[in-house]
Here is the input.
Amino acid sequence: MSDEPNKGLRSPLRRKLLMGAAALPLVSILPRPSFGAGPATATVNTTGLAVTDTEVTVGILHSATGTMAISETGSIQAEKLAIEQINAAGGVLGRKIKFIQEDGASDWPTFAEKAKKLLVNDKVAAIMGCWTSASRKAVLPVVEQYNGMLYYPTFYEGLEQSKNVIYTGQEATQQILAGLNWIAKEKGAKSFFFIGSDYIWPRTSNKIARKHVENVLKGKVVGEEYYALGSTQFNSVINKIKLTKPDVIFTDVVGGSNVAFYKQLKAAGVDLSKQALLTISVTEDEIDGIGGENIAGAYACMKYFQSLDNANNKTFVPAFKKMWGEKTVIGDVTQAGYLGPWLWKLTCEKAGSFDVDKIAAASPGVEFKEAPEGYVRIHENHHLWSKTRVGRAKLDGQFELIFETADLIEPDPFPKGYQ
Amino acid sequence: MFGDYSIGDLGSIFVMQGFAGLILFSVYVLMALGLAIIFGQMGVINMAHGEFMILGAYVTWMTSNLFQSYLPGLFSGYFFLAMMLAFLASGALGMLVEWVLIRHLYKRPLDTLLATWGLSLILQQAYRSVFGAREVGVELPQWMLGSLKVTDSIEVPINGIFVMGLTVSITCAVAYVIYKSRWGRQVRAVVQNRIMAGAVGINTEKVDRYTYGLGCGIAGIAGSAFTMIGSTGPTSGQLYIVDTFLVVVFGGAASLLGTIASAFSISQTQSTLEFFMSGSMAKVLTLLAVVGILMLRPQGLFSLKVRK
Here is the structure.
């Protein structure tokens, strides 16, 4: 598709010349960062990574095809934007970032195979990638065996920690607890109905949420339901919700089921302006498919919303739209994807090296003050300190920020009392 | 679980649950009808059925966008036009596919399975390249949203009633075409004995092409209708394919009545079980029952006696 404008040109040479000419004005306008002025390659790269005097190679590993492409497209876009911005600002340790993109194709063994290819053949200095927990679990043994560095963007269930992974999304307690506290206090909620897709993330998240509701909030869980991934019929469970009349519906339904659930909820006459619903699986990306009119009024518990009103976000959102189109929306995970390359760059500069062991050791304490979500810092456990926020879905598909925690929440991937 | 609720509450829930079952029944019939025609009348296992449905959904999405931009005054009625366009688009693509691919494989039914599966992958990637990897949201006219309040506590989803009405009319139309019209007689003749049908002057190739087109076209209508209750993305078609095959195989391949009976029994079992236990567990039990019955009756609920 991108070749369209050159369609009429037959000769490859002519085409190359033209493309070169098209690039000229860009080159002359931009202040050209000079690469190659950094420290000597031998000192920053002692383990044979793909680092030259002027370039350093990283990998991007997401599903550009298959069922997960819906979700992972945003992460790919965010990571490319971050890399472009870092290069424009002078690169990492005086070197320009070059990326190799591989397609995990929504297939977990493919993820593992491509990760191995990136680490063994391409010798990338870091991988920005994976989205589902299943793909991360497939890649984890590979990055540990070949000592790679993975920046993983999705909010996930926790119960994992690795020297070779930086988790730029929230683990479950970070995402859920503050939101539950808020809704219990704000709405006086005592009874909760849980509904999720049937796999590890919703089940673990709901387990944590149930313990919190029962032990801390002294409330009651009146129903806990799981539907197979891809289910499209929710009328029965909606009737059950109507019968049990919970104060809060707490949902972690994902994928195509998500769309079906909210459409049918709306059709069944459940008015989300009266019935409180708290979701941990709907970002601006998902609302694109659900339709704002079907979900307006629902609360979502995230760390980032596109509508956040801070100086960093005000430069981030226009830059993203400029690169990927005015209509593109930015969800929580997309923002977390954007953090990956930046955190890696900052860590490389702190460590003064691209070596994975030094990066892993230098990561704790690295802070990124220009994060669109405000400010983040890497914890000793390789997760991020970040705020929990609650937003309310509006008709136009954006969230209105309703609540945010005063302080950064400490990541706790192995929460005591919640397992 | 019923101890804490009043009789009135329970009564209205049972009514609504009954409707939920009927809606599920209509959804199953609608999605299985096109496949049943193709599988039953032609013996072609169409793995790309879901993708023909999603083509209908995308056509609906484009129609709604067009109306929003150019004919906002007529927006409330766009859905009917969208369904017709969906039928035409999916039907036309179906006939093209039949001409390019399927007709060369009639003597190798298992190969059609592989070929149409490949086709489904191609179509998915095509949708992704054309419409983008993200899901699209199809905006519905106001009157199709929300629910009908029958009494204070009984509410019935309007889109559910719409799907029910649509299913009844399409089923009647298909039954009429197959069992009453001249063309339907030709279709049945070809099914029963292709060589003889050709010998008495029926253009069997043409009959095949139109049958395949009709099946795909109905899939398109189903996809269009399902934008009301489900998602529209490049791979959404995959969400329906398993249930669709389940209904068709359980019903007995060559029988329209079988498809309806099987859709009814599966949907009622599932929606009743879903109410009393969790969704995953309900699915497990439904599938177990289907497997059990198919072991005893491999030809499905109803089957047509065909001379092979």
Chain A is about 40% helix and 15% strand. The longest strand of chain A covers residues 55-62. Chain A touches chain B through 47 residues (CB under 8 Å). Residues 41-170+309-385 of chain A form a domain with the Rossmann fold fold (CATH 3.40.50.2300).
